[in-house]
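Chapter summary example: a protein plus manganese (II) ion.
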Amino acid sequence: MNECEYSQDEIVLAKKKNEKDYRTVDVSGVKIGAGNFALIAGPCAVEEYETTLHTALEVKKAGASIFRAGAFKPRTSPYSFDGLHEEGLEILKKVKEKAGIPVACEIIDAAYLPLYDDIDVLQIGARNMQNFELLKAVGRQNKPVILKRGMSATLQELLLSAEYILVGGNPNVILCERGIRTFTCGTRNTFDVGAIPLLKTITALPVIADPSHATGRADLVESVALAAVAAGADGVMTEVHICPAASSSDACQTIDTAAFGTLSKKADKVRQALL
Ligand code: PEP
Ligand code: MN
């Protein structure tokens, strides 16, 4: 018996009702799930307006339908850059309007929710997957939520965290596999590709993949992204910057816009091959 089989009774609202039960989450007109695939791309963190806008315009041109960038970054070290905070959210709002693309942004504290009015999809990061008060707070509102798998979380725990949001009344949950911590050290985390089809046997929620935080290496992002697509992911979220080396955080795992364009084209081909 594996960890996903023995306590499915607690997976109630996230549970797949039958073979054809695949739910769609609508992010300001961009549908994810039930055959709808989306690329989410952008820098790790919001930076100054021009750079952020330039990256947003480029990723949109290359096939991204949602732009991502963090404003309040949960950093392992208190000495690392942790985002532009409120100013970052203001920049993101302007970029969204100018580039005409919905935006995803991580939220780390329920008290900040009023600041996120212009954000189209909230992200709960790996470090907050079991921040139950935050889960309850995003469950009490209707904005879609990308829920990332905690770095040492089982799929059961991920699904129970999703359940917290659903039970609060918000049906718009997208699960994200972003790698888990194992004994290996060649990559930042170990991408659990099997989690994608396995989750889809248990839950009807859309499942996306983040190959950037999974690998920590820009040169591996495309391969892992394509593996996720082949495994049935409903979307891929990648860190992209017009000049990766100049990224204010996660530079090593950030790809440039040309590499993202290639990834986008290859992802299309993989999807076509699966039809
Ligand atoms: C992020 O997407 O910027 C991020 C911090 O990811 P994770 O929570 O998966 O580490
Ligand atoms: Mn990052």
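Key point: The chain is about 35% helix and 15% strand.
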